[in-house]
Structures are given as structure tokens and as C-alpha cells.
Design a protein that fits this description.
The structure holds 2 protein chains of 2 kinds. In chain A, 29% of the residues lie in helices and 23% in strands. By secondary structure, chain A is α/β, with parallel strands linked by helices. Chain A has 5 domains: 136 residues, 3-Layer(aba) Sandwich (Rossmann fold); 160 residues, 3-Layer(bba) Sandwich (FAD/NAD(P)-binding domain); 62 residues, no CATH class; 158 residues, FAD/NAD(P)-binding domain, CATH 3.50.50.60; 57 residues, Alpha-Beta Plaits, CATH 3.30.70. The model of chain A has no long low-confidence stretch (mean pLDDT 95). A 4-stranded parallel β-sheet of chain B has the order 2-1-3-4, sandwiched between helices. The N terminus of chain B is likely disordered. The chains are: A alpha/beta, B alpha/beta. The interface between A and B is large, with 55 and 55 residues.
Chain lengths: 648, 150
């Protein structure tokens, strides 16, 4: 057995804390170590060549690389050894950066720890076995979850590449949050005008199948072969028959009595409704929470909507339907929730009608909104308007991150007030204006020049919005009070409240802020740790529309690649059963979450289905006879590593 | 031995701790502690497994036999396990193992199970500090020894 050990200095990232030459010298003395070297950057061309040359010239059997986390560069180094004809599973990595040099400052102890960890890896390496990665065929279809701008963009890109896409949205229409916006910064394009054509494109594209008013119920399988159960909620309207004429909504007994969530509850609709005029699909849906018929089993003497519908499209017998989709890859584009400022009493939101959120402002100024675009608060046009930034963002107690869009949407909204009411007084309480995107700083300067007063305050300086006759008084430390008749809170973007549930269904992770976690913040921002599942848009972190669209296109490329290849490699780490040792006790059977272990009544022993096996090893840890062996994490390998680390 | 001497000896004792961390949550949490440069004592030596459910109680006993003074097993939070419930199996196994350890005269506090998610770099560092302090108090493991032979 010949083992080569390569220790990385990572510039000074490792070598500032770990005495790398000493590590290399000490490791040389271990049994089976044929070569022990170090390099400034093992991942660089010259570093990789060091390994390649040794494999060729010294005929190495195993390679140990001590550098950064295997989550970072294991694929890189597996590739390096593979190029020299070595099996990629004969590589062992030791994490002496994230787990040593970056978390310890005592050089002597850090060096000692690095030596121990590498000793463990060398001991383990001698028992590593070559493994074959399984290749699976890929179903040439993709699923996009969420039909906002991110989901629409991703679906269109994949469809244009020539693959079938299912686009699932829980709402009656696709369009998402962007559909609610009035104008978009910094170009002041009308949001609906740039979004609606894309919505129509998505609906019309022959490769895209829309599943609106549908939710993801369950996700099984793995890259190339996901089995997704989608719950289609009943609309109680036949979408084949409905022509969107709206006679039903006119007739509805509850017309004008049901809060319209698309308008942020600022207007009222009927119990049978279409969320907004550009909705796709353009069909009506009955709100099961409000419809008398659905709630109480009757609606007056007759069903007015049914009577009004000339198409006979209304069907109260519709039932929830479960649909199974087989797809090769998944793009998650589930977006965000708006921060609800009611919990922050200082802003007086809900207490005073003069205080509204950014999204409410969007609806109010929208020509299709509750006031047909007239900015009227308490029945009159505002003369004194105050914007307060960073509401729900940059709060160490709550959402610590910056929501990235509020500075610019506030500037845009200030511009719109100025545009509609040239004589109004406008003030913006800000902490730092983050105008980082293309054309943002220019737009911000333009707005400042439009007689908008920017008043700086520290994030934790007290601010208070108190009720006053006909409006409110905004009291901010260090600034004169403002008697305002409209206060707009620049509310931030927060994770979807059901992100955790979604993450569990998909087997992906959340980051500390509650958004979905990417596989690497810089180098794999569109991937998750689950192969075949990608993320795009605000479900990953708050971002503006240009960034969302760019990320969605990127995620689409990532998701289409396996479909184009037609095959994907899956992990080789699975369980195996030694028939001679298996007693057929069936203890393992119930432990397996994937039903990969099956009792053979002929042989009276367990059999493993290694396509179903995901390689957790729960069965192996329980097997009383030791018949189950986990590839790459066998008892011998783990015990050798323990021994190597603890050897005196 | 005087009381002062005992105290000095205790202060010098730097325990050896083995941490079995699952690939998806706890190992990633440890990585996040690294990228966030959160400092913690170097006593912990990490062994990666795919799932905390892989940790055979025998590994824990073996680590103690090989000279570890404490063992930490880190998995995903209940409900978040990448393999659905491997972490719960680990928890149950460790609970049973602790009974056994007490029975044969080993302080069961030497073995600890924890949940650390991929987002909890700070929690990971906190847990390591706590565990290291606790094992320091319990003192070195001298009770059982075994030489692995292949």
C-alpha cells in the first residue's frame, strides 16, 4: 500500500495557523506513507500536477489531501486522481481549513490537531475501496416550483432548450409578486407590461404545462428520476369551459364583500374571482374559505353564479386531485413573503390608516388597483409624505440581512408621488442608501433632485409614528417632527413562512436567515446539496428583478444539463449485504426510510435494492451480525480513522 | 496530593474528543463556523459520516477505548434529517449506550448527542466549548483500553 499525502497552505489561510512543513515531516513517518508534500495551493494547476506526477511515478494506491472542506474541493481532487487512472473513492480529504486553521489561533495546538486528523485519514485510506458510481438514466422533463418571474423565466428557458417543463404555482394564476408591482426601478417600466407577455409565453409554450392552484405534496426519488406528487386544489370551475367573462363574479351574492389579497386586502372582490386582470390562466376560481355554498352547503335560494354562467363551467362537485409527475430535475422558485410590520408598534401600522407598507403603496398607485391609481388616504390627496426605510430589515433582533430592494423601491415610490403631486412635501428616513445596481445610483440622484428630502438616521435611533388628527406625526431623533398624511414603510422581504416544510419535502436545507441554502455561496449559488434540485430568485435570498431573472436563467441551464445528457451519476455509497452473515432477523428492514431492504422468503435473508438505497448507513449501525457493510463508511474504515486520530 | 496540585493537574488536562458529524447538517455547520471564523477549542477531532444514524455505538465505545475522553455525535435537527429519521435512530442508540456506559462504570456524560443544522455555525462552536469544558471537569478517561488489530 502506497499513500501520498498532500497538505495545502491555502495561501496563508492554513499556513498562518498550522505549521505545514512540520505536519508534512511528521506525516512522513507514518506507515504506508510513500510521499508527503505541501504546496501553496494544492487546487492550482501546479498543486494538482504534484499529485498527478506522484501517482504516475510512485505508483500510489491512495491519495490524502489535507486542505479545505471536502464540500468545497472533493470533486476537484476526485477528478485529479481519476485522470491518472485511480478510482475517485481512493481519495481521502482532510479539512484543515474550516475545521482547524480558521477556528483555532493557538498555532501549536492547531498544528497538532492537523497532524492527528491527517493521521486518521491515512489510517482510513489504507482501507478505502474502489467504488463504481452508478449511472442512471434521466427523465427528460423538469419541474419548476413557483410561477413568479423566477419560475416563469426558468420554465421558459428549459422549454426553449427543448425539454418538457411542469410549472407549478399554488395561486390561481402565475405571475407572483411581480404582478402586484406598479412600476419597476430604475427604468420605471410598468411591471405588468413586461411580465404579462412572459406569462402568456409560458402558458402558450408547447413544452410547458401549467399546474396552477396546485401544491407540492411529496417528492421522492433522486436526480434523473424524481417522483413528485402534486395536489391540484379544486377551483370548482372547469378550466376547459370557463371563458373568463366574469358574469359569475358580478352575480355572486358576496360581490364586494371578500377581501382581495392581490390588492393587499385594500379592495373587495366576490367569492368567485380572478386574481387580477392579466391572470394566466384567465379562468375563475371559487374561494373555498368564503363561498357560502362551500362553507354552508347552500347560498340563499339559488346558486347565483351557476345561474349566471353561460358556459356551465361551475362545478361544486370538483374534488382535490393528486397528480404524479416524473421529472429529471427540479427548480425551486418559491419567492418570499412581505414583512408584516404590525408587530413593530413604533410604526403605528394598522393603528393609523395613514401608515401603509411598500406593497400596499404599489397596489394603491396601480391603475388597476383599489383606487384606480389615485393616491388617496383618508379620502384626500396627501400633501406630506414620509418614507421610512429598513422596516423589518437590518434588524439584529429579527431579520439581520439587507432586503436589497427597499432603498430603490422607496426612491421609485418617492418619484411617483412627486410625479402625481408636484406640490407635495416628501421626506425619506434612511440609514444607508444602497444603490448598487446598474442605473441605481443615477436614479437615486435623480429622485434627490426632485425635491425629495433624504433624512439620515442610525438604525437604532428612536423613531415613532403617532396618531394625530387627519394624519400622523413622525418623530425621529435628531430631526424636526413631520406632520404627515401618508407614511410608507419600506418593508423588507422575508422567507416564506412554509420554507421549512418545503425544504423537508425536497430534502434541501435552509440558511440561518430562513431562506433556502445554496451549495456554495460563491461557486454553486444555484445548486442545493441535493443533486438535481436547483434554486432561483428570492427563495434563496432577497434580490431585485434583474438579479432574479439572471439567476433563473442560470438555474435553468443547470437543470437542463442532465436532461440534455440523458444520464446522471449517483452516489456510489450504498449498503451491501454479506449473504453468509445475514441471519434474516429483519431488524434493518424497518429502519430503512426508503424500503431498500427486502426480506427474501426463499433465501430467508435480506436483499438490498441499491438504486433505492441512499447510503445513510442506519441499517449497518443496527445489524447485529455485521452482515451489512456500508461502502466508503465500513466499520474497518471508521475504526481505523478513530485509531489513527487517537494514536499516541 | 494537595488540593492545589489537583487543580493544576485538572487545568493542564486537555481532553481528546471525537466528533461524529453527519455530512448534511452538523459537518456543514462546522464548516460554517470555519467560514465565519468563530473560534472554539481544538480538542474536538471530527470524523464525517453520511448520517448520524451510521454511528454504530461500537464506534463510540471504540473511541473511548482508543483514548478519547469524550465523544460527540452531531446530527440534523429532528424532522430535518437528510435521510428522514437516521438522527432519531442515533438518539435512541446513544440513549441506550449511555445506560450501558453507566452500568460498566463509565461516566455517561462523556457521550453527547447534539443537533446542529447547516446554518448553525455559532451553535456548533458553542456546543464544542460546552463539551470541552464538561469533559475537562470529568477528567481523563483511564478506564478501558483496547488495541485494535486487523
Amino acid at each position: 500500500m502506497k499513500i501520498g499525502v498532500y497538505v495545502c497552505e491555502c495561501g496563508i489561510n492554513i499556513s498562518a495557523t498550522v505549521n505545514v512543513p512540520e505536519v508534512v515531516e511528521r506525516i512522513k513517518t507514518l506507515p504506508n506513507v510513500e510521499s508527503s508534500r505541501y504546496s501553496k495551493y494544492i487546487c492550482s494547476d501546479s498543486g494538482q500536477e504534484l499529485i498527478r506526477k506522484d501517482i504516475r511515478e510512485l505508483n500510489l494506491d491512495r491519495v490524502v489531501v489535507a486542505s479545505c472542506s471536502p464540500r468545497m474541493h472533493e470533486p476537484t481532487f476526485r477528478g485529479v486522481v481519476e485522470e491518472e487512472g485511480m478510482n475517485p473513492y481512493c481519495l481521502e480529504m482532510v479539512n484543515i481549513r474550516e475545521h482547524v486553521s480558521w477556528v483555532h489561533s493557538d498555532k501549536e495546538r492547531a498544528t497538532e490537531k492537523a497532524i492527528k486528523l491527517i493521521s486518521g485519514a491515512v489510517a482510513r485510506a489504507q482501507f478505502l475501496e474502489p467504488l463504481e458510481r452508478k449511472e442512471v438514466s434521466v427523465i427528460p422533463k423538469s419541474l419548476v416550483i413557483g410561477g413568479g418571474i423566477a419560475g416563469i423565466q426558468a420554465a421558459l428557458e428549459i422549454a426553449i432548450d427543448g425539454f418538457q417543463v411542469y410549472l407549478v404555482d399554488r395561486n390561481p394564476s402565475i405571475g407572483g409578486r411581480m404582478a402586484q408591482l406598479d412600476k419597476t426601478f430604475p427604468t420605471l417600466d410598468c411591471s405588468a407590461c413586461i411580465l404579462a407577455p412572459k406569462m402568456v409565453d409560458a402558458a402558450r409554450h408547447p413544452n410547458i404545462e401549467l399546474l396552477t392552484y396546485s401544491e407540492i405534496e411529496k417528492v421522492d426519488g433522486y436526480i434523473g428520476n424524481f417522483k413528485v406528487t402534486v395536489k391540484k386544489k379544486p377551483r370548482y370551475v372547469d378550466i376547459e369551459k370557463c371563458v373568463g367573462c366574469g358574469l359569475c363574479a358580478e352575480a355572486c351574492r358576496l360581490k364586494g364583500r371578500v377581501l382581495n389579497e392581490f390588492d393587499e386586502n385594500l379592495s373587495k372582490r366576490s367569492a368567485i374571482y380572478i386574481p387580477f386582470p392579466q391572470a394566466v390562466p384567465f379562468v375563475y376560481t371559487i374561494d373555498p374559505e368564503r363561498c357560502n355554498m362551500l362553507k354552508f352547503g347552500k347560498c340563499g335560494d339559488e346558486l347565483l353564479c351557476v345561474g349566471a354562467c353561460e358556459q356551465n363551467a361551475i362545478n361544486f362537485d370538483q374534488k382535490e386531485e393528486l397528480v404524479e409527475l416524473d421529472v429529471g430535475t427540479i427548480v425551486v422558485a418559491t419567492g418570499f413573503d412581505n414583512f408584516d410590520p404590525s408587530s413593530e408598534l413604533k410604526y403605528g401600522y394598522k393603528e393609523n390608516a395613514s401608515v401603509i407598507t411598500g406593497m400596499e403603496f404599489e397596489r394603491i398607485v396601480n391603475a388597476a388597483g383599489p383606487t384606480e391609481g389615485h393616491l388617496e388616504i383618508n379620502g384626500k390627496e396627501p400633501e406630506n409624505v414620509v418614507f421610512i426605510q429598513c422596516v423589518g430589515s437590518r434588524d439584529k433582533e429579527g431579520h439581520e440581512y439587507c432586503s436589497r430592494v427597499c432603498c430603490m423601491y422607496t426612491a421609485k415610490q418617492a418619484h411617483m408621488v412627486r410625479d402625481k403631486y408636484p406640490d407635495s412635501k416628501i421626506a425619506v428616513y434612511f440609514t444607508d442608501v444602497r444603490a448598487f445596481g446598474k442605473g441605481f445610483e443615477e436614479f437615486y440622484n435623480r429622485v434627490k433632485d426632485e425635491d425629495v428630502e433624504y433624512r439620515r438616521r442610525e438604525l437604532d435611533d428612536p423613531i415613532q409614528v403617532v396618531g394625530n388628527e387627519g394624519g400622523v406625526i413622525v418623530k425621529a431623533e435628531g430631526h424636526p417632527d413631520i406632520h404627515a398624511d401618508l407614511v410608507v414603510l419600506a418593508t423588507g422581504l422575508v422567507p416564506r413562512k412554509d420554507n421549512k416544510e418545503l425544504a423537508r419535502k425536497l430534502n434541501i436545507s435552509l440558511s440561518a436567515d430562513g431562506f433556502l441554502l445554496e451549495a456554495h455561496p460563491k461557486l454553486r449559488p444555484l445548486d442545493t446539496f441535493t443533486d438535481g434540485i436547483f434554486i432561483a430568485g428570492c427563495c434563496q435570498s432577497p434580490k431585485d428583478i434583474p438579479d432574479t431573472v439572471a439567476q433563473a436563467s442560470g438555474a435553468a441551464v443547470r437543470a437542463a444539463a442532465p436532461l440534455a445528457q440523458g444520464k446522471a451519476q449517483v452516489e456510489a455509497i450504498t449498503a451491501t449485504i454479506n449473504d453468509d452473515l445475514c441471519s434474516g432477523c429483519r431488524i434493518c428492514e424497518k429502519l430503512c426510510a426508503y424500503s431498500a431492504l427486502e426480506f427474501s422468503s426463499d433465501d430467508k435473508i435480506m436483499k438490498i435494492n441499491d438504486v433505492l438505497c441512499k447510503g445513510c448507513g442506519s441499517c449497518a449501525a443496527a445489524c447485529p451480525t455485521g452482515a451489512i457493510k456500508m461502502k466508503h463508511y465500513s466499520n474497518k474504515q471508521v475504526l481505523a480513522q478513530i485509531g489513527g486520530i487517537l494514536a499516541k | 496530593m494537595t488540593a492545589t496540585e489537583t487543580k493544576t493537574e485538572m487545568e493542564e488536562f486537555e481532553p481528546n474528543i471525537i466528533g461524529f458529524l453527519c455530512n448534511w447538517c452538523s459537518y456543514a455547520g462546522a464548516d460554517l463556523a470555519g467560514t465565519s471564523r468563530i473560534q472554539y477549542p481544538p480538542n474536538i477531532k471530527i470524523i464525517k459520516v453520511m448520517c448520524s444514524g451510521r454511528v454504530n455505538p461500537m464506534y463510540v465505545v471504540n473511541a473511548l477505548q482508543q483514548g478519547a475522553d469524550g465523544v460527540l455525535i452531531g446530527g440534523c435537527h429532528p424532522g430535518d434529517c437528510h435521510y428522514q429519521h437516521g438522527n432519531l435512530l442515533a438518539r435512541r442508540r446513544m440513549a441506550i449506550l449511555k445506560n450501558l456506559l453507566e452500568f460498566i462504570g463509565i461516566d455517561s456524560r462523556r457521550v453527547r448527542m447534539t443537533w446542529v443544522s447547516a446554518a448553525e455555525g455559532r451553535k456548533f462552536a458553542e456546543v464544542i466549548k460546552e463539551v470541552t469544558e464538561e469533559i475537562k471537569k470529568i477528567g481523563p478517561m483511564k478506564d478501558i483500553q483496547r488495541v485494535n488489530e486487523w
